[in-house]
Amino acid sequence: MHRVGYAELAAAVSNAGGLGIITGLTQPTPEDLAPEIDRCRDMTDEPFGVNLTFLPSFAAPPYPEFIHAIIEGGVRIVETAGRNPAQYIPALKAHGVKVIHKCTSVRHSLTAERIGCDAISVDGFECGGHPGEDDTPNMILLPRVGEELKIPFVASGGMADGRSLVAALALGADGINMGTRFIATKEAPAHDNVKQALVAASELQTRLIMRPLRNTDIRHLVGGAGNRRVLQGGELDAGAWSCGMVAGLIHDIPTCKELIDRIMAEATAIIRSRLDGLLAA
Ligand SMILES: Cc1cc2nc3c(=O)[nH]c(=O)nc-3n(C[C@H](O)[C@H](O)[C@H](O)COP(=O)(O)O)c2cc1C
């Protein structure tokens, strides 16, 4: 998550039993990513990954150098997103790096499988960030991907608690990915005002802004400076920031360990009591 996915959060998620992910492009240069990977390794002995988001070519950062920093940093899992990562797969595979590609459609998931990705993170229309162009929510997208894909996939978008986990598993996913929910944790390096705003928000308070307004009317709000002032400075009206409608399901600010433990306990209780109970009735 841009401007939130620093080493502190990635390490906390990995220490809590999840797979924490550093946002590669939050570091201004590949030279800055290398020490960020080292910082994460200092904070956890568990595996963690790096996200590399492939932006439109007119804005392309030096991707080969970012890939080099990831490989040299000994990271074994990369989450790619955005444009097709095909040209970077051979280098990553040659160094034993597993690639999870984030997709918002069945056809992109199948392309990712064909080019050698190891797993897919399926981002439904509910997701925070960029929801793609197909607007298919996870209730439909997850089982559709499950019908066609052979490699494993996790459900991303709208995931917050044990109910989400059990539902995602029922829809065919092998696990869940959470973005917005992790911003409202103690370890997330986001301003407390942002965390409190997520707790206060209902599911009705997000807007899909980039598409309907065609970028230009809101350019002054979505630029980097305003986004930084919100997420890091806590000035909530200084710019736009990403979060999903799952904000409606966020009611507290736990540690990552408390959150993940609670999700596992809730999921277990739902399966053992509610679902088993329904069968027994
Ligand atoms: C503040 C924020 C920044 C994000 N930045 C990125 C990014 O740079 N690259 C990316 O692939 N996804 C990004 N995402 C999307 C998340 O990685 C994840 O797919 C999404 O948040 C899942 O939906 P959820 O928020 O409902 O859990 C971002 C999400 C948020 C909330």
Can you tell me about this structure?
- By secondary structure, the chain is of the alpha/beta class.
- The chain has helices at residues 7-15, 30-43, 63-72, 89-94, 106-114, 138-148, 162-170, 180-183, 192-200, 219-222, 224-231, 256-280, and strands at 20-23, 48-54, 77-82, 98-103, 119-123, 153-156, 176-177.
- It has a seven-stranded parallel β-sheet with strand order 1-2-3-4-5-6-7.
- Helix 7 (162-170) crosses helix 12 (256-280).
- The longest helix has 25 residues, at 256-280.
- It starts with 6 loop residues before the first helix and ends with a helix.
- It binds flavin mononucleotide (FMN).
- Flavin mononucleotide binds next to strand 2 and helix 8.
- The site of flavin mononucleotide has 26 residues, from strand 2 and helix 8.
CATH topology: TIM Barrel
Bin the helical content. Answer: 40-55%
How many individual β-strands?
Answer: 7
Q: What fraction strand? A: 5-15%
Catalogue the unreliable spans: none
Number of domains: 1
The CATH C-level name is Alpha Beta
The secondary structure category is alpha/beta
What does the overall shape look like?
A: globular
What ligands can be seen in this structure?
A: flavin mononucleotide
User: Can you give the mean pLDDT?
Assistant: 95
Order of SSEs: HEHEHEHEHEHEHEHHHHH
Largest sheet: 7 strands, parallel
CATH architecture: Alpha-Beta Barrel
